[in-house]
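Deliverable D2.4 — example input (structure tokens):
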């Protein structure tokens, strides 16, 4: 019995091992790229909205000077399908500009618009806003801002065509206030497409930004003390 066990153990020791499969790194990368290309979904192209019906208006409202690149996008589909490398070839520099455009493209796909993105009735880039009053009780009257077709009153529009507008509100009795909202002579207000109205404002660096702020301020204090001593005649 012991001899059989010994023979089995010797057989395992002297059995030839199979050589491990070796795959070149380049082939592995090509395989991963081929798999990714086969499974990648085409980019989603969202439909334009009434306030942003074309490429130029989209680049205008997101700001940061992107309006000057409108001629580089022949169609709405091109705006939402070009890759970052293709945008660089078109001359969108610096890289933060491309990243900003890509970020806003994704937000637009997800329906996360800026002010006026929910309006329905727009004419020549302008949406008219009116105050809708709802009598809840003899003592309670609710007022809200709605978008109506140009030249129409709230009473002349069916409830299904009235669109409540986010980001604006009623102030006092008859005033509509909000970003990029201007009053009209005949009552109500208008919201007009304006360059940078959806722009994400960049922070303003003070004294060189966070990483260099202490160094810049220290050198400034040294220079001020030196100037003061020179003025007092110590140098």
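Example output (designed residues):
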């Amino acid at each position: 019995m012991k001899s059989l066990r010994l023979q089995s153990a010797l057989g395992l020791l002297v059995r030839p091992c199979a050589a491990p499969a070796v795959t070149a790194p380049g082939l592995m990368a090509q395989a991963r790229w081929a798999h990714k290309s086969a499974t990648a979904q085409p980019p989603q192209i969202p439909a334009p909205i009434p306030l942003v019906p074309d490429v130029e208006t989209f680049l205008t409202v997101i700001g940061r000077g992107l309006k000057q690149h409108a001629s580089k996008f022949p169609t709405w589909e091109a705006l939402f399908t070009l890759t970052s490398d293709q945008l660089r070839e078109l001359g969108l520099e610096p890289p933060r500009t491309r990243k900003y455009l890509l970020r806003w493209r994704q937000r637009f796909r997800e329906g996360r618009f800026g002010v006026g993105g929910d309006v329905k009735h727009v004419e020549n880039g302008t949406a008219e806003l009116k105050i809708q009053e709802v009598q809840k009780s003899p003592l309670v009257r609710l007022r809200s801002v709605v978008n109506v077709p140009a030249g129409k009153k709230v009473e002349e529009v069916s409830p299904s065509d009235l669109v409540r507008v986010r980001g604006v509100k009623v102030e006092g009795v008859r005033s509509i206030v909000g970003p990029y909202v201007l009053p009209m002579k005949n009552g109500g207000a208008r919201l007009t497409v304006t360059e940078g109205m959806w722009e994400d404002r960049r922070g303003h660096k003070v004294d060189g930004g966070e990483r260099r702020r202490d160094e810049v301020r220290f050198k400034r204090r040294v220079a001020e003390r030196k100037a003061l001593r020179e003025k007092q005649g110590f140098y």
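Residues 18-22 have pLDDT under 50 and may be disordered.
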